[in-house]
Structure formats: C-alpha cells, structure tokens
C-alpha cells in the first residue's frame, strides 16, 4: 500500500511459450520423368566403376564434359518425415541430398540433415549407408576413407567476380545451408585460383554437402567441382586436429564411465598424495600458497612416492624358486620313494612279494646300459 492510501496491484506476466516446430511429411522433390537422364559420352572402350568414367579418357575432358545438375536440395522446403522415422533407419537418402527423390514421405531413408549427436550403426559407412574404403581415390572423389575423419571439402571451378572476402561470403552463404561451419578460418579462398576450402564441424555434414553441391553453381552459373580435401600440411592445424580428436575421445569415455568408479579413483589418488577431500570429492585447500610452499609440497609428495616405491621393492620380493627333483636313471626320486613306501606297507601286512624287486644303483648317462637286446640270442 502506498502513502496516499491507494493500493498497487502486481500483474504477473505469463512466460512465453516456445513453439516446437513439428516436421511435416516430406514432399516429393520431383515427379517421375522430370529428370532427364543423359548417358555419359563414351570416350574409351571400358567403363571404370571406381572413377565412374570411361577408361582412356583425359582427366580434363572429364571435367569439361560435366553438366550442371538439374535439381538441387532445399533443406527448408524438402525436409520432412518419412518411413525411416518410424522404422528407426538412421541413414539419409542420397537422392534427397541431390534434390531428386520422387518418393517423399514414402522413402525408406531420412529426408533431413544428419544429426552429429547420433552415432551410426556402422562406422565404416557414410551417412548415406555407402561403404567407405581404406584409401582415397587419386582425384579425392568418391565416398572417402574410414582411416581418416575428413571434415574439409575442396571446391573448385569457382568464378570470382570480386575480392577474396566477397567470394568467401558467397561460398559460406551457399554451403552453410547443409551444416554448421567451423568458426574462424573455416572458409578459405585461394584468390585468382578459383579454389575454396570449407570445413564443417561434423563429418556427416561434410558428406551431405559434398553430394548436395556437386555440379551445382554459386552465383555465376558455374559448375562446381567438389572433392575431399587432402590433409592440411600446416603443423598447427595437425596439432589442433589431434587435440580435438583427443577431447572427443575423453568426452565419450567420461560419458561411458560409472561416476562411482571416478570418485573411487579420485579418493585413492588423494590418499596417495596426502590430500583431504570434502563430501563432494573436491580438494580442501588451506588458503593460497606461495611458490616456495608449492615447491616444498611437491618435493614432499615426490619423496613420499619414492619411499613407497622403495618399500614396495623391499617388501615384495620374488619367492625362492624350488629346484626340480633330479632324475636318477629312468625313475625319478619321487617314484623311488613311493615304491619304498609301498614295500614297507606290504612287509607290515605280512604280504610276501611275488617277485623280488632288485633296486640297482643307477649308472651315469641315460641308464640304458643294463638292458639287453632281443637279437642277442
């Protein structure tokens, strides 16, 4: 209540409800017969299914013979639900990425961008369920290799009409439709060489964009040549890529590990170092320490560990090895003792042996000298 006697009412504003966009059934991108299928002109006697061209044809001729694709995928318009959303299929439709799937919602594959957080059933296949190979093709085309995680695409035959930054913006605008691009220098344009490199955050998006932008054009009606990029020779890039893969591996391991095992290992390490943990498993500090105190503490821990190592070496000694019983002749010492034991038992029981057992002193060597041959007679 205010001083003048009037009451003020507080009106609660309800929070805005976020609309969850639901996918609609996927539309049919083309009708049967809309796409005109043209046969590749024969330039040789044999057709190479590995390179998808006639053997004997020149490499430059194969580029010049390329024609612009008749269809193109539009993610906003073409994405939708298919039968794969009910059957559990995790692979994308190859023809959907090229913009020419005539089945729409009846397709057995997904009509959406691949989800980087969803692991595929087989790591040796790409997002279109095509088998990868051990090595790349010589022209860096095709499906790719399972021995290397490649997220960078080579884009050739670009028509440059402005500066390098303008060309970079054009390339980024066309390729960001098919996945999230890395920050920073993820799009590199080699000016006056009509070449660009695009790096995605996920390899799945790179696979999808490679098929979606093959034989497409940017803004100047060119025919793009999209291939896999070779490994970056820059040492800094190699170190960053190695660190990124290590971080991904550690993140996966942390997700799979039992938190109770992690807490137990942390407690054991704290006991070895002489630290004290609180209820949450965090170290209890005694305030800020100087550099000299940290050095002293580090030296004390090192001395403790060396002492533990010495104690372990002193206390844990290998057990003395027992010498195996020496062989005397054909029978071992254990066998001779057993025979003597049984003979004593027979004597105590008053059982006379049927045949006298004569124990001879074994001779040197193998003890076969006293045995005769059947051919002596």
Task: Give the end-to-end Cα distance, rounded to a whole number of Å.
Answer: 138 Å
Name the average pLDDT. Answer: 77
Strand order of the largest sheet: 4-5-3-6
Summarize the helix and strand pattern as letters. EEHHHHEHEEHEHHHEEH
Low-confidence stretches: 310-317
Q: Specify the helix fraction band.
A: 25-40%
The number of E-state strands comes to 8
Count of individual helical segments: 10
Structure class: alpha+beta
Describe it for me?
- This protein has 377 residues and is an alpha+beta fold.
- It is built from ten helices and eight strands.
- It has helices spanning 59-64, 75-78, 84-87, 94-98, 164-175, 203-212, 235-256, 259-273, 291-315, 333-348; strands at 46-48, 53-55, 152-156, 187-190, 195-199, 225-228, 327-328, 331-332.
- The strands form three sheets. The protein has a four-stranded antiparallel sheet with strand order 4-5-3-6, covered by helices on one side. The protein has a two-stranded antiparallel sheet with strand order 1-2.
- A hairpin with a 2-residue loop joins β7 and β8 (331-332).
């Amino acid at each position: 209540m205010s001083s003048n006697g009037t009451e003020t009412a507080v009106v609660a504003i309800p929070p805005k409800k976020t609309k969850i966009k639901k996918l609609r059934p996927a539309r049919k991108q083309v009708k049967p017969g809309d796409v005109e299928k043209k046969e590749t002109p024969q330039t040789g006697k044999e057709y190479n299914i590995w390179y998808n061209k006639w053997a004997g044809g020149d490499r430059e001729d194969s580029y010049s013979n390329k024609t612009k694709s008749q269809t193109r995928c539009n993610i906003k318009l073409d994405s939708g639900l298919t039968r794969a959303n009910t059957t559990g299929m995790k692979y994308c439709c190859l023809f959907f990425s090229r913009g020419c799937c005539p089945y729409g919602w009846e397709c057995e594959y997904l009509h959406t961008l691949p989800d980087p957080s969803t692991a595929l059933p087989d790591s040796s296949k790409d997002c279109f369920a095509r088998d990868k190979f051990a090595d790349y093709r010589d022209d860096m085309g095709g499906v790719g290799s399972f021995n290397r995680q490649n997220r960078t695409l080579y884009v050739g035959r670009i028509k440059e009409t402005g500066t390098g930054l303008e060309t970079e913006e054009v390339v980024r605008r066309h390729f960001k439709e098919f996945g999230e691009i890395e920050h920073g220098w993820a799009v590199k344009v080699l000016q006056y060489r009509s070449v660009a490199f695009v790096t995605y955050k996920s390899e799945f998006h790179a696979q999808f964009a490679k098929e979606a932008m093959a034989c497409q054009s940017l803004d100047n009606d060119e025919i793009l040549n999209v291939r896999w990029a070779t490994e970056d020779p820059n040492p800094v890039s190699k170190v960053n890529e190695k660190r990124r893969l290590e971080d991904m591996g550690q993140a996966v391991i942390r997700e799979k590990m039992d938190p109770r095992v992690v807490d137990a290992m942390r407690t054991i390490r704290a006991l070895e170092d002489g630290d004290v943990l609180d209820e949450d498993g965090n170290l209890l500090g005694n305030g800020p320490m100087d550099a000299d105190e940290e050095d002293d503490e580090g030296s004390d821990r090192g001395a403790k560990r060396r002492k533990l190592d010495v104690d372990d070496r002193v206390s844990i000694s290998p057990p003395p090895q027992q010498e195996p019983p020496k062989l005397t002749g054909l029978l071992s010492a254990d066998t001779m003792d057993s025979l003597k034991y049984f003979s004593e038992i027979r004597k105590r029981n008053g059982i006379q042996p049927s045949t006298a057992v004569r124990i001879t002193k074994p001779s040197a060597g193998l003890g076969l000298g006293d045995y005769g041959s059947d051919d002596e007679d």
